[in-house]
Design a protein that fits this description.
The chain has 226 residues and is an alpha+beta fold. The chain has two domains: 2-112, Archaeosine Trna-guanine Transglycosylase, Chain: A, domain 4 (Roll), CATH 2.30.130.40; 124-220, no CATH class. 35% of the residues lie in helices and 25% in strands. It has a five-stranded mixed β-barrel with strand order 1-3-4-5-6.
Length: 226
């Protein structure tokens, strides 16, 4: 079943459970926020990555990736000049079917995607093994980043739930947008974790081979189960 949702195209990928602060300064997106604030809660819109170019050029399905993430607006702080500072959180994935340009901003006809863990019947132990491998691989990745940066990176305990873990890892890794988008579009959590396992092996090898990769600050990384 499809529904219409306001769209916010970005040169970024949002994952379910991840927080996304936004500074709204374009007039059409100020209109989008005003329309959301005038409506009932939950105030939902779609964050979807642009294939190429800038946000202002994303006016068709062809300009956008197929899979995006629904965002719920949790806080909206207006400024004196009509801008907004938003706090949003991703909730669920969607597939973009079509776009509508009847409003100043894009609206999308979307289909929500299931958030299955992807474990086949009787394969729970195999899925748990994949979770443990990715957790270990991500910690090794953080250690490799710390070694390159000459510092220490600490992170809270990683979740054991496959879908949430897959989204935390997908959001935290330093990878290009197309790879991040491929993780969002993976059919299920186990498939996403397997892709992340391969990416982690590659990234760790690259980090150990070069000293030019910057280390990020993970102290402020946050995730939410909502």
């Amino acid at each position: 079943m499809s529904e219409m949702l306001p769209l916010f195209p970005l040169s970024a990928v949002l994952f379910p459970g991840m927080r996304l602060p936004l500074h709204i300064f374009e007039e059409r997106y100020q209109t989008l926020v005003a329309d959301l604030l005038a409506g009932p809660e939950p105030r939902r819109f779609g964050v979807i990555a642009i294939r190429a170019g800038r946000e202002v050029g994303a006016d068709s399905v062809a300009a956008l990736h197929e899979v995006g993430c629904v965002a719920v607006m949790r806080q909206a702080a207006p400024t004196a000049d009509g801008r907004y500072d938003l706090l949003t959180v991703g909730t669920e994935r969607f597939r973009l079917v079509d776009v509508d340009r009847s409003r100043p901003y894009l609206q999308g006809e979307i289909e929500l995607l299931p958030d299955d863990d992807g474990a086949e019947p009787g394969a729970a132990e195999a899925a748990a093994g994949t979770v443990r491998q990715v957790q270990a691989g991500f910690r090794a990745y953080l250690n490799a980043l710390a070694d390159q940066g000459g510092g220490v990176i600490s992170i809270a305990d990683l979740p054991d739930e496959p879908a949430l873990l897959s989204y935390v890892i997908g959001a935290a890794m330093i990878i290009d947008l197309p790879e991040r988008q491929s993780l969002l579009a993976a059919p299920d959590a186990v498939a996403r974790l397997r892709l992340e396992r391969s990416l982690l092996v590659r990234e760790i090898a690259m980090l150990r081979a070069t000293t030019s990769r910057p280390a990020p600050d993970y102290a402020h990384e946050q995730f939410s189960p909502n």
